[in-house]
Structures are given as structure tokens and as C-alpha cells.
Amino acid sequence: MLRLSIFILSRVTVATADAVTLTLDRAPGYAVAAMDSGLLPKAPQAEEQLRTSYGTGQTPLTEVLQTQLRRLALSQRRVDALRDFHLARVRYDAAIGRSFSAGGGAGK
Question: Is residue 58 part of a domain?
């Protein structure tokens, strides 16, 4: 039963990560919020479950490593989405003539 639930969790994680990738193209800020509220907080728990399962001989090491790789890829997508969001914001502000202060906030 544990192995089946881990397999399902792993497949859901992959499907959700694919959906997040599609969302990144449309709205980077939304994608970051979706990752922060749903997927990223669950990743360490899934990894821990797999490590426990591996420790009892129910799961091969490759599944543990693939789950870690998926979490790292998702974290990288989050960083990329944040970069894209902030670059888009800066480009928009530049296009409308808004200047920037040295403190990081937009000026008048």
C-alpha cells in the first residue's frame, strides 16, 4: 500500500510540475504562488517517505534520487519564474517611463 501511494504521489508530482511549467509561460507570478502554496511544501515530505520506504527495502534508490531531482528541478523553475516576473516588471516600468531608486523600489 505504501509503495502504491508513493508511486501515485510521484506521478502526481510529475503531472503537477508539468502543469506548473505550462503556467510559467502565462503568468510567472501566479506560478510562483502556486508552487509556494502547494507543491514545494509537500516535496520534503514525499522525499522523506521515499527514504523511509527505501530504508525498509520497499523502494529502489533510483526512485529516491528521481524524487530529489524533481524537487530540485521544481525549485529551479521557481527561481526562473521569479526572474521572469521581475524582468517583466522592470521592462514594463521602463516602457512606461517609470524610474527606479537605488533602494529597489520604483520611483515617480
Answer: yes
**Is 104 within a domain?**
no
The Cα–Cα gap between 72 and 76 comes to: 6
Amino acid making up residue 71? R
37-59 residue pLDDT tens: 777 777 888 888 889 999 999 99
> What number of residues does the chain have?
108
Residue 13: inside a domain = yes
Q: What is the pLDDT of residues 53-98, one digit of tens each?
A: 999 999 999 999 998 898 898 889 889 988 988 898 899 988 998 8
Tally: H helices and E strands in the chain: 4, 0
- Residues β-bridged to residue 100: 106
Number of domains in the chain: 1
Structural domain containing residue 85: 2-95
Q: Model's pTM, two decimal places?
A: 0.57
**Rounded (10°) angle between helices 61-95 and 40-55:** 170
DSSP 8-class letter at 1: -
In a domain, 102, yes or no: no
